[in-house]
Amino acid sequence: MQCRVREDGTLMKLNLLIGFEGSGPDKSWQDKPHLHSVRYSPDRRFLFAFDLGTDSLYRLHATGATDEGQPVLSESGFGYAKK
Question: For residues 82 and 69, what is the distance between their CA atoms, to the nearest angstrom?
Answer without folding.
Answer: 27
